Amino acid sequence: MSTPVCRLVEGRPDLEGILALQESNLERNLAADDAARDGFVFVRHDLATLEAMHAAHPSVVAVHDGRVVGYVIMMAPELRDLVPVLGPMFDVFDGLVHAGKPLTEQRYFVNGQVCVDRRFRGSGVFDEMLARYREAYEARFDLVVTEIARRNVRSLRAHERVGFRVIHSYVDPHNAECWDVVAWDWRENV
């Protein structure tokens, strides 16, 4: 099998590919043992939201034989209102301090969601997509922040492998989900 090409989103077909891959990996669409073993995503986006997000800052996709087989969604904090379900996450971020400075005073963006097609997991696609991500945005941002459900072990390990570190943990009072807030501080790797 040939290697997927990792690049910035180029248009609507890429966005539609993100949505198709997202749908097949939403936790609610997976068997519990599959989600525990392979990871999952929580948030379902729609095409209009992705179009608005990508007009501001294109995300990264991995494409194989014309099909999106991986993606990393880029979400700048100023677009937070586009995905209301993420409001509580941004509220947590607003109260965090990283490297001695409030996160709100730093040049950061949110790793909005990452997903790799089951056939390409463990092949280096995740790492390659994040390398493209950094290449595209490190001149404008200093760090990437996201939160990952602690029970999503595969995702936590993958993020840690490329340089993300836990900067905060909390329990959501509405659903008792344990979250780790992780940051990839690009200033540490220069």
Question: Which short descriptors sum up this protein?
Answer:
190 residues; alpha+beta; 28% strand
Structure described in brief:
This protein has 190 residues and is α+β, with helices and mostly antiparallel strands. 33% of the residues lie in helices and 28% in strands.
What topology does this entry show?
Layout: E1 5-8, H1 12-25, H2 32-38, H3 47-56, E2 60-64, E3 67-75, H4 87-94, E4 97-98, E5 101-102, E6 108-116, H5 125-137, E7 143-149, H6 153-162, E8 165-171, E9 178-185
Parallel strand pairs: 6-7
Antiparallel strand pairs: 1-2, 2-3, 3-6, 4-5, 7-9, 8-9
Explain what this protein looks like in three dimensions.
The protein is of the alpha+beta class and 190 residues long. The protein has one domain (5-189): Aminopeptidase. Helix content is 33%, strand content 28%. The protein has six helices and nine strands; from the N terminus they run βαααββαβββαβαββ. It has helices at residues 12-25, 32-38, 47-56, 87-94, 125-137, 153-162; strands at residues 5-8, 60-64, 67-75, 97-98, 101-102, 108-116, 143-149, 165-171, 178-185. The strands form two sheets. Strands 1-2-3-6-7-9-8 form a seven-stranded mixed beta sheet. A two-stranded antiparallel sheet has the order 4-5. The longest helix has 14 residues, at 12-25. It starts with a strand and ends in a 5-residue tail after the last strand. The mean pLDDT is 90.
